[in-house]
Amino acid sequence: MHGTMGSRALLLVAVVLTAQLCACTAYAGSGGDGFSVEFIHRDSVRSPFHDPTLTAPARVLEAARRSAARAAALSRPYVRADAPSADGVVSEVTPRTSEYLMAVNIGTPPTRMVAIADTGSDLTWFNCSYGGDGRGLAAARDADAQPPGVQFDPSKSTTFGLLDCNSGACSELPEASHSCDANSKCTYIYSYGDGSHTSGLLSTETFTFADAPGARGDGTTRVAKVNFGCSTTFVGSFVGDGIVGLGGGDLSLVSQLGADTSLGRRFSYCLVPYSVKASSALNFGPRAAVTDPGAVTTPLIPSKVKAYYIVELQSLKVGNATFAAPDRSPVLVDSGTTLTFLPTALVDPLVKELSRRIKLPPVQPPEESSLLLCFDVSGVREGQVAAMIPDVTLGLGGGAAVTLKAENTFLEVQEGTLCLAVSGQFSAVSIIGNIAQQNMHVGYDLDKGTLTFAPADCASSYPAPSPSGSV
């Protein structure tokens, strides 16, 4: 065990992970109730990737268009070739884009990284550079392979370590994506559908999480020997300093933080609507418990991909009209996809029923989008549109009923144009996207095997920091 305990009487919690994936040591605040970090939408003013030249509807439309690529990537998980491609890269299609970011401090002393927070993948990895000899890692880099943003230098950290090929964590990587280097260290390579790829060595490092401004606590949580990928090369375009995997597999940050500790393998978030200038919160440990009034719980069902959070969709209801889902209708709950994608057998009657009930002039959807139903709201006073849109209720496994308000089913994609945020399933997986999850406290509990939804005013539950502050 490394490090010393400060004067604030930090609580030492031993973390013992199954399958010999890591031996973590967490130092949490004396309250022991977990911690919260800021969950930053990539288009918000708090994001380093905010484009001030775009209008609010234009940002929403771009997010909706990104949904198609995200859904396509999620529908072909871990598709990989039997042999390397012509450029020597093993193909593995995994989700690369996502809509939310989070900050993580890694190393000793810590380096602050702003990374994609992805509920659709497991491996956490960050861009790395090497100022010294790299401790056995190649110091040379292709000039065209330099990633944008912050790069972590492991040669400057006293807590960095490499994992061997025979480690449990290495075996958890997809078979075609990892191998051994000359020193028997575990290497990985991930290739994405757009042609970009990243490679590096599976490593361990200390992660430090500071409670976000406005959260219930003001302490820090430090976890030693977290497994992550130290990426030595990245070729292609990318948003963020890396990816934090929040999926359900053994390599995910959630599993590593929580096994056999007071934190538990659980997290939750509360997403503010796109139109609200406030931050969302991402909670870990006991703080992630969803006990809000109106909370409903549905069981997670087994998935072909451990990372995915799948529940059963049984029905869809609009007013007194109920439509049964096709038999065995699994749906992925994903914060990284904007739109909701459902089977045609549900979307077709939904569009028909909403068209009949909503008394607004219909207009054509924007080109190059997956949007199916749009209305002209230019002549309607602000605040009156929501009253003209009926609730849509999703019937999930275990008897859970999740009610979607107007803000969960429609979004303004152009000035005066309101479109349905539900599209037809064009891929192998249905998805409940982040528009549908706005103003809901959504809790994932891997220990109980459940997912819980509760209506909430997410903007009031987490005060917005100043946009001029650090991200």
UniProtKB/TrEMBL annotation:
Gene3D superfamilies: Acid Proteases. One of its GO terms (cellular component) is extracellular region. It holds the Pfam family TAXi_N. GO terms for molecular function: aspartic-type endopeptidase activity. Keywords: Aspartyl protease, Glycoprotein, Hydrolase, Protease, Signal. It comes from Triticum urartu. The keyword Hydrolase applies. Belongs to the peptidase A1 family. GO terms for biological process: proteolysis. The active site is at D118, D334. Residues 1-26 form the signal peptide. Residues 100-454 form the Peptidase A1 domain. SUPFAM superfamilies: Acid proteases. This is Peptidase A1 domain-containing protein. InterPro entries: Aspartic_peptidase_A1 (IPR001461), Aspartic_peptidase_AS (IPR001969), Pepsin-like_plant (IPR034161), PEPTIDASE_A1 (IPR033121), Peptidase_aspartic_dom_sf (IPR021109), Plant_Aspart_Prot_A1 (IPR051708), TAXi_C (IPR032799), TAXi_N (IPR032861).
